[in-house]
Design brief:
Radius of gyration: 21 Å
Bound molecules: pyridoxal-5'-phosphate
Order of helices and strands: HHHEHHEHEHEHEHEHEEHHHEEHEEEH
Largest sheet: 7 strands, mixed
Strand order of the largest sheet: 2-8-7-6-5-3-4
Helix content: 40-55%
Distance between the termini: 50 Å
Strand content: 5-15%
Number of helices: 15
Shape: globular
Number of strands: 13
């Protein structure tokens, strides 16, 4: 008997998540140093120094299991967000909260509706639970097509996900459009508002998902310490939801899913307002620079509310940027072979990226229009 006959068919059919290429890997492959990674939407300033200090202080206790309730973090965050402590569920990244929702609500034949392109983990989590991923194309501006998503909700729909701002496009939906969408949702559907990048949003009408947690039972807002707080390597994220929904996820959760270093670091990061403000300033300035400079090179840049931009740099640009020592995220897997997703980096990293794109565009101009990204858009 082979495992092939025993593995669950929906698991065998999954395509594993492809993470951003590590800097060390590219440096080894090319025999270069000082490659730049702008591929995983990490904080280019690194972790909060206060978080690093707090972890140092906690190192001597790692022989103990962590506090399974993450009490200190729970108390602090509940105060910050003005929610009850029982409304919070912590995970090894907000990825894990998605997994818990799938574990609690999805089974064979159930459906989950989400936009596409969106976060690459959604189909993996949904299909991994044996459920069907009902994907709804973004509109022509790469924004969630909420009326089309509403139309895709049917009797088998158990979960609906809105990624706001959306990864990999950086686009967001406004408060009024989101309200119209949510008001039309059946009450027994779990609504996930994935706000991994909400801290970066600059659109004036960007909605605060937490208001929907208060207004609509069965709504989970997902947030993370991986992005603006710079703690991606520690794996800590959380969901905010009503107490009933949180109770189901708590039943499905492993007891020590958030490790003790992650908990102290997350607490310290929440208190490090200066690091947060530095990060937001750098990201906003860097985002403006990338939009301006890439635009001047004739590259279409999608307006972004996140710490990354979707840019139409042209065919093969992912590979060509790699050869220039700059790692971005290819978008071919989303059906956008001429686009890449670029994380906003430090001023120096952004400069390296812009220079690499300039060289690539120069090559393209020299080679004739068939390589240019700005020509004939279908
Ligand atoms: C939209 C979105 N949601 C959730 C996550 C998961 O983040 P983490 O598991 O690191 O909290 C990511 C990570 O890139 C993301 O882009």
């Amino acid at each position: 008997m082979t495992l092939e006959k025993r593995v669950k068919p929906h698991v065998a059919a999954l395509s594993p998540y492809v993470p951003g290429k590590p800097v060390e890997e590219l440096e080894r492959e090319l025999g270069i140093r000082e490659a730049v990674k702008l591929a995983s939407n990490e904080n280019p300033l690194g972790p909060s120094p206060k978080a690093v200090e707090a972890m140092r202080g906690a190192l001597a206790n790692v022989h103990r299991y962590p506090d399974g309730a993450s009490f200190v973090l729970r108390e602090k965050l509940a105060g910050r967000l003005d929610v009850a402590q029982e409304q919070l569920v912590f995970g090894a990244g907000s990825d894990e909260i998605l997994e818990l929702i799938a574990k609690a609500f999805l089974g064979d034949g159930d459906e989950t509706v989400f936009a596409w392109p969106s976060f690459a983990m959604y189909p993996i989590v949904v299909k991994g639970a044996g459920a069907r991923a009902v994907t709804v194309p973004l509109d022509a501006d790469f924004v969630h097509d909420l009326p089309a998503m509403a139309a895709a909700v049917g009797p088998r729909t158990r979960v609906v996900i809105v990624c706001n701002p959306n990864n990999p496009t950086g686009t967001s939906v406004g408060a009024a459009a989101l309200e119209r969408f949510i008001e039309g949702l059946p009450a027994d559907v779990v609504l996930v508002l994935d706000e991994a990048y909400c801290e970066y949003a600059r659109s004036e009408d960007f909605p605060d998902g937490l208001t929907w947690v208060a207004r609509r039972p069965g709504t989970a807002v997902l947030r993370t310490f991986s992005k603006v707080y710079g703690l991606a390597g520690l794996r800590v994220g959380y969901g905010v939801m009503d107490v009933e929904l949180a109770g189901y996820l708590e039943r499905a959760r492993h007891p020590f899913n958030v490790n003790s270093l992650a908990e102290v670091a997350a607490c310290a990061a929440l208190d490090d307002v200066a690091h947060l403000e530095r990060t937001l300033r750098l990201t906003r300035e860097g985002g403006d620079t990338l939009a301006r400079e890439l635009g001047a090179l004739g590259v279409e840049v999608t307006p972004s509310d996140a710490n990354f931009v979707l840019a139409r740099t042209g065919p093969d640009s992912y590979e060509r940027l790699l050869r220039a020592g700059v790692i971005v995220r290819p978008m071919g897997g989303f059906g956008l072979p001429e686009h890449v997703r670029i994380t906003i980096g430090t001023a120096e990293e952004n400069r390296r990226l812009i220079e690499a794109v300039r060289a690539l565009r120069g090559d393209a101009d020299a080679a004739g229009p068939q390589h240019g990204a700005a020509e004939a858009r279908p």
